[in-house]
Predict the 3D structure of the following.
Amino acid sequence: MTGTTDSPAEPVIVLEQLVKFFGRFAALRDISDRFAAGRLYVVLGDNGAGKSTLLRVVAGLMEPSQGSVTLLGTRKLREVAHRVGYMGHAPLLYDELSGMENLRYFAGLYGLHNDSVGSNAMQMVGLDPELLRRVGQYSQGMRQRLSLARAVLHDPDLILLDEPFSNVDVHSARAMAAVLGHVRDNGKTIVVVTHQAALIEGVADDFVHMSAGQIVRREAVLRRAVTTNSGAEAVR
Amino acid sequence: MTGTTDSPAEPVIVLEQLVKFFGRFAALRDISDRFAAGRLYVVLGDNGAGKSTLLRVVAGLMEPSQGSVTLLGTRKLREVAHRVGYMGHAPLLYDELSGMENLRYFAGLYGLHNDSVGSNAMQMVGLDPELLRRVGQYSQGMRQRLSLARAVLHDPDLILLDEPFSNVDVHSARAMAAVLGHVRDNGKTIVVVTHQAALIEGVADDFVHMSAGQIVRREAVLRRAVTTNSGAEAVR
Amino acid sequence: MKQLFIAFIVLTLGLLAYSTYQALYVAPTEQTMGDVQRIFYYHVPSAWTAGVCFLVNFLASVVYLWKRNTASDALAAASAEVGMTFCTIVLITGPIWARPVWGIWWTWDARLTTTLVLWLIYVSYLMLRRFSAGGQTQVLAAALAIFGFVDVPIVYMSIRWFRTQHPSPVMGGGENSGLDPVMLQAFFWNLLSFTCVGIVLMVLRYRLQRLEENVEAKHAAVALQGGSR
Amino acid sequence: MTTLSVTRATLHKDLRMEWRSKDAINSMLFFALLVVVIFSFAFNPTAEESRSIAGGLVWVAFLFAAVVALNQTWARELRNQVLDAYRVSPAPPNALFVAKALGNFLFVVVLEVLMTPLFVVFYNLRSVGPVWQLVVVALLGTWALVVNGTFFAALSIRTRSREIMLPLLLFPISIPAVLAMVDATTSILTGEASPDFWIKMLAVYDLVFTAVCLLLFESVLNAE
Amino acid sequence: MTTLSVTRATLHKDLRMEWRSKDAINSMLFFALLVVVIFSFAFNPTAEESRSIAGGLVWVAFLFAAVVALNQTWARELRNQVLDAYRVSPAPPNALFVAKALGNFLFVVVLEVLMTPLFVVFYNLRSVGPVWQLVVVALLGTWALVVNGTFFAALSIRTRSREIMLPLLLFPISIPAVLAMVDATTSILTGEASPDFWIKMLAVYDLVFTAVCLLLFESVLNAE
Ligand code: HEM
Ligand SMILES: Nc1ncnc2c1ncn2[C@@H]1O[C@H](COP(=O)(O)OP(=O)(O)OP(=O)(O)O)[C@@H](O)[C@H]1O
Ligand SMILES: Nc1ncnc2c1ncn2[C@@H]1O[C@H](COP(=O)(O)OP(=O)(O)OP(=O)(O)O)[C@@H](O)[C@H]1O
Ligand SMILES: [Mg+2]
Ligand SMILES: [Mg+2]
């Protein structure tokens, strides 16, 4: 737990001696850590480091083999499900429905039956709510944006994102990062797993480095006013 | 055809008024261009710009709607299939076989029945040929490396790679980029599609910018001796 | 060309009216079966027209695989649809006729079964066209069409030998042999008019398909010219 | 309350997706027709015998058709791992199950309504017993197939060889139901025996397995 | 020459993958067992009748089992889009087809060898005609199913609702083969008629369709 940023409020995520086995392989090896409210965490690490596994365990999609996850003050993750948003590797959308139809359905799962919920979310990520096209015909970048809209639809306090920028072009990625920055500024907690740190470092608060199933290092970032000039940017 | 680098040798790829329609949507719009031998081209562009489509048409996986592709001096792509290597978005590997078994099978398709072919390719990308694990259990990064090995197995003169670095961690990506640099130095032609230009700019010769189905800009890179410091690097 | 075709349509409509008149009023009522027998004038010409359409479909598919031209693919699609329609008419009029005449709706007689199998094959052909996406539809459909057409004679042969221990009482009567000359005349008028209707429908469907392709091509050209999408 | 609204929303969404593509409906119909045709080639239905094996034929055909249909329902949820989106939401798991089971029930009933005339025509069937009894048997029997089928389809999509797993799980459990359906149908068609016992048996089977499915579905859904 | 070596390599790879997972073979076997059991519940085989419907039962069971198996062969090639790797290589397309067809043939034959005793036991079968004729019919009939099945599976994996498309395409085309198999089998089992005509018919069917498949496979494989 080196370099943990301390925050006055109660931590949003508390991991205690978290272990996750797949067969005899330990994907998460004794992770104890806490994540404070209102910050944007970027989780980095090599392939197979256990980033996705950690996110899925925190989201309640997997039971940990040992240890516990405390989310927003409770260990019963289902009770706080309506306060958590999750965006997985895959888009988690129905290809056969349009963007709004997707969001309307998912809003219903959270008990929100107002259409403005969906259209606000779409506008937030820069999509047109009137768009009639089915998601199957969206481009990769549009799909990822819509997926982000789905994850933040119900205005969750904690947002977990797994590689939201993979296969997304630099423009779309920056737009998505900016959205995340705004959401964080509204007091939400965000955890982003990515291999493309450069895209999000402009708005990141903390970098969390994982390796071989453990959190090996954490570092707080001094918030900069302007976006850094990444290598990718220099080239274009 | 702005800024095309001229080369004395005959070009490896000649595209003439290439058009590809999906229904009424033009994914490639009248592309005429040529790619010289012995260079490493990096193709950049937004999602949906037509990069993958271009690569698939060049690889002979799709028929162009109009126009022609001349590869290594011929329009009959099947005749030069043994001189072309292709790595797609997906890994193009059998999950149930080990790395060597995969490579052995694919080598057989090229008429190569010598095991050293496969083990050399594996060593080249930094994998252990003795590894008994099935590819299904490989981590994402290992899989991408093996996929690269498959594409260059038969020592092709032209190598087409579609987003080889997506979901690959920065270390593996740099290692793969270095391998590509070596291969290029041996006189092969390489075309890489990627959104992460920073990872490969150290070894790139030309950047090709695509937008809305067209090649809008090309620029040659002054070869630098050292790898540039990308944003991602600065963070780690 | 266009005027010629319109003239042909008018001619076909006239023929259809005349042949209907022939079938319903001129032809004498059959003695044993009664008025039900008049289905004959629709049943058999439909079967014939369906056969013609499927032949066209086969030829167009072969040409498509060889030449890869969209025109023959459009013709294949058009003929399959029209043929399916006529084949359906046969399969509906047949049982309607069979019920009063034989007392059952269906029997596994050679001709009936072959018709059914043919219909099944072309339904699967049309489903394949619907379910496959983009550029591959034509090739896949053409391959299936060839399979289907090769299959039909085999089906016919095998069905003729099928369950010979239960000879079916179907075509034994053989109206064909002793057909009344007036009936024969009405029959030929219907045969002619149905064939013409089949041709008209096929040409219309083909032109519709081509028009759609043209629209696509125009849109494509616009998309190509326009600087951005 | 919220279970009801989620059930309705899910059913609505499924029907809309189904309606939009119409793929499944069309292909199922054609498949059913093919099964009837293939069966009549294989079993040579002559008027006298056919009535005694028709019960078996009809239900085996429905069973095969239903298995194909059931696999599709969940496949759709799995395609982009949309199921995960449901799992992270606070919506009750059973709402999903009920919606899927109802959707499948509707689907299979439509299928049966359309297949029955084919059987009647091809096999020259005519029922000796009252037809409403056949309807009762069909509804109870279909629910028996569908409720277990939906449950096991949810189980089997998580395994590697998906399509094959469903029949493997479903058939053994369904044997008593199949038996009851076949015997009830045959009794009614031939009019030789009373189908009452079998109908009661089907009703009990339906109740028991609906309860078990509702009880266990949450664990199945959340099995990682 | 190179066709031969690629065929061998592909067949070898497929068998190894199958052997390693044993998914398909295990589940197929169990599926077959269940079909036999369900059929005997549905049709109540009594010694006298059974011989006349056994031919139909056996082949319907094999047909459904084969359809399930056939879908799996190509699904494996499609999983990581490995097929693209084959398509960009200079290897001849027909080698792939022949390897797949042979693999499936082996597979279904193994299945039949294991299922036949079940049928014999459940239905108290004994053949009146010579058994070697049954073997010939089984081999020819299986090849008929498999060669078209392999082709149509390659066709149908390109379409939207994959699993369902295969039977939709395969069944209509296979009707004459099914007919010939069933009638030949019944003739041999009951000893009432000579199966010669049907055997010849199967042989012709096999030849014709193997030729057509080989002729058309390249176009199908390369249809983008
Ligand atoms: C039940 C479904 C039936 C089907 C699918 C069917 C189908 C066909 C077909 C495909 C033909 C061939 C036409 C040609 O040679 O070009 C035909 C001809 C004919 N059918 Fe039918 N048919 C059915 C029922 C009947 C019935 C009930 C009758 C009358 C008793 C009948 C009387 C005829 C006659 C007289 C011909 C023409 C003479 C011949 O070529 O043998 N059909 N039918
Ligand atoms: N369902 C599973 N069964 C077995 N092993 C698994 C499973 N899921 C993940 N693993 C293994 O657990 C380890 C961690 O996987 P995880 O997906 O969390 O890595 P990651 O950090 O997200 O990597 P990537 O950057 O490639 O997404 C890997 O070695 C992987 O092989
Ligand atoms: N099979 C297809 N059918 C219809 N449209 C397609 C098909 N393949 C690609 N497209 C469309 O063609 C356009 C170009 O696609 P392509 O995959 O080449 O883009 P790309 O540049 O590779 O994008 P990305 O960075 O997301 O991979 C996109 O708008 C896409 O929607
Ligand atoms: Mg991951
Ligand atoms: Mg792409």
Remarks:
- Chain C has a mean pLDDT of 82.
- The pocket of magnesium ion (ligand 4) is lined by residues A 51-52, 162 (CB under 6 Å).
- Chain C has one domain: 38-166+179-220.
